[in-house]
Amino acid sequence: MGQTAVTSKGTTAQENGQVPGISGLGTRSAKSSTMVLEAIGLTKRFKQFVAVNQLSFNVQAGEVLGFLGPNGAGKSTTVGMILGLISADEGSVRIMGQELVGNQSLVPEHIGAIIENPAFYPFMSGRDNLKAHALAVGGVSDSKIEELLKLVSLNERAGDKFKNYSLGMKQRLGIASTLLTDPALVILDEPTNGLDPAGQREIRSIIPRLAEEGHSILLASHMLHEVEQVSDRVAIVRKGQLITEGNVDDLVRRGGYIEVMLPGSDLDAAMRAIRAVPGVEQVTNERGRLIAVGPEELGSAINRSLVDIGLYASAISPKHSSLEDLFLELTDEEPAA
Amino acid sequence: MMNLLRSELFRLRKRSQSWMLILIGIILTALFYGAFLIAYFALSGEEKLDVQDGLLLTNVQENGMSISLLFASILLSILAAGLIGSEYSWNTIRPLLARATSRSSLLTAKWLTLLIYTVVLTVILVGVTPTLFSSVASMISGESPGGSVEIFRGIVFATGRILLTMLPTAALAFMLALVTRSIAAGIAVSIGIGFLEPAIFGLLAALSDVFDTIQKFGLAWGSQQLMMKGYDDGVTNSEVWQAGITMLVYTVIFVVISYVVFRRRDVTSG
After folding, report:
1. DSSP structure class, residue A297
2. Chain center to CA of B6
């Protein structure tokens, strides 16, 4: 029964049937299935416009899934369908193995979500806002609210009205509200939208901690750097369709290359030698740097091939492409200004 | 659903608007009786006695209650429209729905909250406040308010009848704010209809008796009958019953429309 959730960057958090809550805030029973969320063939049309088209993906226990796509790709519509805010024309959503359509009560039970900007009642304090949410779901103690406020470092400003909070504080309150029921799945839709770099870093530091405590995270964003830093896997959507899905490391390695520095050498001969190495797909000369496209493990074989013809590289460096490179390649988007 | 109702009532309690509206209603009623007293002290002879007569509890329904009904219905429209419209303007509707076990339960919690507030507002503003100020003003004028069991029973029944007139007003404001996602639309139409309906039917009735009959199925006519019963002998019991049923039918229609729209509509923003 015990389930071990592999958290972001490969650490393990759950060793037995109980998943500890954040900072000992309580426990969440480990689930027998490792699949927390399954979206199967989701389709949504707004009149003639197909916002989401046969979209399928899943979120496994304890992982952070980056849900990437350019603006208008259908991310928020998909999140809306998962939360029951938007009806799906086709497909289904399963949370903890149970069908969500017609069973809306599963949402507050298993999912905590921030949808785009964190929205709370401006006339109430942060603490009262959490209390209002807690009352709506029931069974949340005042002490849990206090501990969550402490978790997101809002305990000293908890009595201030929400309307007086900075955007970063609002986001942190939003994260606290998602954890009220200790949900299996936390959905964060653009959680760093509009935040300054310090605020972004703060939110980014919270996300892996949530995963370490056993929460699965669906991180919908177009902030590629952010997603690459905290996600275990990514699903990239474009025009409502899934275009790729996989482990972050695998995806970025897919676009990797090896840079060879040979100052003062016969670069044409070097290129011929490198091209002959099995596994090298392409070699180009970029202003004196040779770029060999292929797996990073080929570095030693390339070095050997150069030595064999009497050339000695000053540096052979495997280079990863970034998630941004991959994203732009897959979505045909120009880099953001 | 009870959890959602608790949450709604918690927010209603925490919102200063809920208390401010009642306070405004009390102040306006106080000003009304204050104006009465000023007139009383400024006048003399028969006119002075007439004004003093208007301060008595026997006339509270005709004076204090009918004027406070006007304030109360406007104030209630503001709250009713805000109860759902604010969820859209503050973008809280989506997190709220994500916390709800179903859309129907969320809407039911909101309707019950509105019903509770309507009862409280009506009792305080239309029942208690005019009675209190009428008694105080009477005593200031040197006259006993003249309370009796029969008079108080009449006030209680009048408050009940006025509550019936408040229900469709609140329901209309709430339903329109929900359908249009606009607080302003809810307030404007629910208040505006109270002024426009009698004016329009008054004009049309001059053209044909048919409109005179149709008018008797309107909100304004029903409201008037329910309010006037007790001091206008021209209002018959059957007219009061018809008015009461009309008010309830309108309320049910507005409630049903809100459920139909709210349950079906995708919440893509707000």
Report:
1. G
2. 24
Pairing outcome for strands A111-114 and A233-238: unpaired
CB contact under 8 A, A113 and B95: yes
Alpha-carbon distance of A47 to B41, in angstroms, equals: 69
Asked if A180 contacts A132 with a C-beta cutoff of 8 angstroms, the reply is: no
Please give the Cα distance from B179 to B185 (Å, whole number): 9
Model pLDDT for residues B155-182, shown as the tens digit of each residue: 888 898 889 999 999 999 999 999 999 8
Q: Where are the alpha helices (DSSP H) in chain B?
A: 2-14, 16-42, 45-55, 66-89, 93-99, 103-121, 129-140, 149-180, 183-205, 209-215, 219-228, 237-264
Alpha carbon of A23: minimum distance to chain B alpha carbons (Å): 24
Q: Is 0.85 exceeded by the ipTM?
A: no
> A97 CB near a chain B CB, below 8 Å?
no
- Strand order of the β-sheet with A64-68 is A111-114, A185-189, A216-221, A64-68, A233-238, A241-247
Please state, in angstroms and as integers, the Cα–Cα distance from residue A118 to each residue in A228, A257, B162, following that order. 23, 41, 41
For residue B101, the 8-state DSSP code is S
Inter-chain residue contact B98 with A113, CB threshold 8 Å: yes
Residue A6 is predicted with a pLDDT of: 35
Q: Give the strands of the sheet with A90-95, arranged side by side.
A: A49-60, A35-46, A90-95, A98-99
Q: DSSP string covering B127-157, please? A: IIHHHHHHHHHHHHTTS-----HHHHHHHHH
Distance from CA of A37 to the nearest CA of B (A): 16
Q: Is B2 helix (H, G, I), strand (E, B) or coil?
A: helix
Confidence of residue A253 (pLDDT cuts 50, 70, 90): low
Residue A7 confidence (pLDDT): 37
**pLDDT at position B135, please?**
86
Predicted model pTM: 0.77
Q: Note whether B70 contacts A: Cβ–Cβ < 8 A.
A: no
Residue B114's pLDDT is 95
The CA distance from A310 to B156, in Å, is 108
Cβ of B100 and A131 within 8 Å?
no
| Mean pLDDT on A154-166 | 88
CB atoms within 10 A of CB B154: 18
Model confidence at B20, pLDDT cuts 50, 70, 90, reads very high
